[in-house]
Amino acid sequence: MFQLGKTLVSEEIIEKDFLCNLNACKGGCCVDGEAGAPLEDKETEILVDIYRDVKPFLRQEGIAAIEEQGAFIRGEDGEWETPLVNGSECAYVIISDDGITKCGLEEAYNQGVTKWKKPVSCHLYPVRIKEYTEFTAVNYHKWEICDPACALGAELQVPIYKFVKEALIRKFGNTWYTELEIVAKEYAK
């Protein structure tokens, strides 16, 4: 690990390669798992505020789950997360005609209906953030469902930190990301 400001960053995000391969995984990260997407406190308010605008993009199952459980829920770990449909996929999931799972929140954003892309935890994936009192941990989350993304990233030589550049800047800012790039260049020597 190395430190950037008040973050402790795993070397894996500069060592490992990753590039989402939706044709291979079909967006399984939004469907598999045991919990919804982690949410920051301020994101819970955003979900409530934009729900009416996002609702037309969602599937009936997702709408039902949100209207029954709420725009967000408290997970078993005590943290905020997106609700699930029948304990499975995220309630904000949509499925394209070719069977690829996508984000209804992001679709509303892409079509200019909202100004918020999606939870930062989703935007950062496969990077996971854990807030502690004195620092923030920035780690790579390895999941076999993403093996095709690791293979494609290796083939095209796209390190994780470059794949999630926009999300890292969104979370930590341009200065932090520029420092990360410097560390990555030094690390590569």
Indicate the topology.
Blueprint: E1 2-4, E2 7-9, H1 12-15, H2 22-25, H3 41-54, H4 60-69, E3 73-74, E4 80-81, E5 93-95, E6 101-103, H5 104-110, H6 120-124, E7 127-131, E8 136-140, H7 147-156, H8 160-163, H9 165-172, H10 174-188
Parallel strand pairs: 2-8
Antiparallel strand pairs: 1-2, 3-4, 5-6, 7-8
Helix pairs in contact: 9-10
Organism: Sediminicola arcticus
InterPro entries: Rv0495c
Protein name: DUF3109 family protein
Tell me what the structure shows.
The chain contains ten helices and eight strands. It is globular and about 50 Å long. 33% of the residues are buried. α9 (165-172) packs across α10. 43% of the residues lie in helices and 14% in strands. With 189 residues, the protein is α+β, with helices and mostly antiparallel strands. The mean pLDDT is 93.
